[in-house]
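tool=predict chain=A
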Amino acid sequence: MKRVIFLGGILTLLTAAAPIPSTPDLGKAEGQCRPGESGPAFLVDLMGLKDRAGRVKIEVYPANDTDFLADDNVLVMAGKTFRRVEVPVPAEPVPRICVRLPGPGTYAVTVLHDRNADRKFSLSHDGIGFSANPKLGWSKPKASTVAANAGGGLTTLRIVMNYRTGLFTFGPLKRS
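tool=predict ok
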C-alpha cells in the first residue's frame, strides 16, 4: 500500500512540473553581459565571417557528449548550463561578443552565422563554429574536442567560422 502512495506522489510531482515553453529567447537573459562586469564570461572573437548579413547566435553548453547540443528546454529544466546570445552581425572586422557564464569551468561553445536571420541552420547557406576550432565532418564534434576552460574573469575565445566549401566539405573560407 505504501508503495502505491509513493508512486502516486511521484506521478503527481512529474505531471505538476510543466515543461518550459520553447522560445528562441531561452538562455538569453543569463547569457547577456552587462557593462562593467568582470566575469566569468567568454569574449568570443569571430574569425572568418563570410559577410555581415543576418545574425550571430552563440550558445554555451556543458562540455559532455550527453548535454552538448541538447535541447535547450531539457537543459534548463534539469538545471544545467545553457546560455545564448543572439545579435545582428557586428560590423567590426573581428567582432567580439560577450557571453556570461554561471562560473569558472569547462564549457562547449557553438556559433551560428544565420545569414538570412530565419533562426534555422541551412547547411548550404549558413556558417558554424565551435570552441577549440575542430575540423568538421558530417557529424557533430565530440564535446571533448570543443571544450573550453573559463576562469573567474573574462576569457577570450577565437572561433573560426566554417561554411560549405564544396559538395561534401566544410571549412574556413579561403581569403584571396
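Strands lie at 41-47, 55-62, 83-88, 96-100, 105-114, 127-130, 147-150, 154-160, 163-164, 170-171. The two ends are 76 Å apart (CA to CA).
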